[in-house]
Design goal:
Growth Hormone, Chain: A; 15 helices; disordered N terminus; mainly alpha
């Protein structure tokens, strides 16, 4: 029998801390592929267009993990499930630097993505179950913490390359730190699944809105994963920075995303999610426009990278908060949101990889810019439908 831990009357604080710790681990794993991409290509004797398949398999695994996790969290203790995903992910991360065949690496990335998706659905669902309709600042904090892990990953990989000329040290460190977090979660009692009537008038079966929000998240995550996954290779290929500078540029994106999510915590208590989302999308369009207009400018690249990170920082948590005001958030509903998100993470980086060599690195920013414009259009549809309802 697992020992029970409670710091507050109902254990909300300690449970929230556990979800935050899990999200740091998720951030480390998510942001590791971008700066490690050239090393993984060399390790598997692959070209950039072929190694980009790991983004596709990872996102496919994420999609499957989102569906599986959403089904499981409505039926089994959530904390035990999250602990299991972390242990499995740690094992696979330790194996990645030893794999020399691309097909095998792709398979491992599929499994890593599956565990990422299930872990992400768990943290985002369970924190809603713990805090219910007061979840907005805690949700923003959850995604801020994810940014901390994502910020650290490129720095650690860059240091591993500088000191040891390989990525082994960084990946094994990532694996090691996941184990205490898994133990922490396993010892906590899981929150109960909420009944639909506990959420008041929100409609649990608003399927058109679920589809629209999932489509919006598909496009948004395509921007985030496409940019973070390819900015390192874009910068080095475009010769606007060396290997170290490109690693720091990647970290700068995640740092801006993290700061933006920190700032969004007090903002979420003053502005509605729909107002925050509109500002986020407009800021992202302006930032990418600067990079497109001055492609050879180091200053424009850094300013656009920081601006994009700040602008889109609160899109994901604000979208989930927006949805939570209009429907009951179950594991299944959250899973469909993450299916959309993982599909975007699968398609956009893969598309960039196919065009990067054929059309040049500038195609990276064009694809991401068009993606963000489409996301803005879908958001307008979401607003229209929600107001009609």
């Amino acid at each position: 029998m697992k020992p029970s831990i409670s710091l507050t009357r109902d254990g909300k604080l300690i449970k929230t801390s556990a979800y935050y710790a899990a999200m740091i681990m998720l951030g480390l794993v998510t942001a590791s592929s971008g700066p490690a991409l050239p090393s993984l290509a060399a390790q598997t004797h692959s070209t950039l267009d072929t190694i980009s398949i790991i983004f596709t398999t990872g996102a496919l695994g994420y999609l499957l993990g989102s569906l599986l996790g959403g089904w499981l969290y409505d039926r089994l203790p959530g904390h035990s499930l999250m602990a299991g995903w972390l242990v499995g992910m740690a094992t696979l991360m330790a194996l990645i630097p030893t794999i020399s065949q691309l097909w095998l690496l792709s398979g491992v990335m599929l499994l890593v993505g599956l565990m990422q998706g299930a872990l992400d659905v768990g943290a985002n669902t369970l924190i809603v179950w713990v805090h219910r309709r007061k979840v907005e600042p805690f949700m923003n904090g959850l995604h801020f913490i994810f940014g901390i892990g994502a910020l650290l990953a490129p720095v650690l990989i860059g240091q591993a390359l500088i000191r040891y000329s390989d990525i082994d040290w960084a990946y094994r460190l990532f694996a090691l730190v996941m184990l205490p977090v898994a133990l922490f979660l396993w010892r906590l009692p899981s929150p109960p699944v909420p009944a639909p009537r506990e959420e008041g008038p929100a409609n649990v079966s608003n399927y058109p809105l679920v589809v629209l929000i999932a489509s919006f998240l598909l496009l948004y995550v395509g921007v985030e994963v496409g940019f973070s996954g390819w900015i390192y290779t874009y910068a080095t290929t475009f010769q606007v920075g060396d290997v170290t500078a490109a690693a720091y540029l990647n970290s700068a994106f995640w740092a801006a995303l993290t700061v933006g999510r920190l700032l969004s915590i007090p903002i979420a208590t003053r502005l509605s999610p729909r107002t925050i989302l509109l500002g986020d999308l407009l800021g992202g369009v302006v930032s990418l426009t600067a990079i497109l207009l001055w492609p050879y400018s180091t200053l424009a690249l850094w300013a656009g990278t920081l601006g994009l990170g700040l602008a889109i920082a609160s899109i994901f948590p604000a979208t989930l908060s927006f949805a939570g005001r209009r429907m009951t958030i179950t594991g299944a509903v959250t899973a469909w949101f993450f299916v959309g998100a993982s599909t975007g993470g699968m398609l956009v980086p893969w598309l960039i990889g196919q065009l990067f060599t054929a059309l040049g690195p500038q195609s990276t920013m064009v694809i991401i810019f068009v993606d963000l414009l489409l996301a803005t259009g879908v958001y307008a549809l979401v607003r229209w439908y929600a107001q009609r309802e």
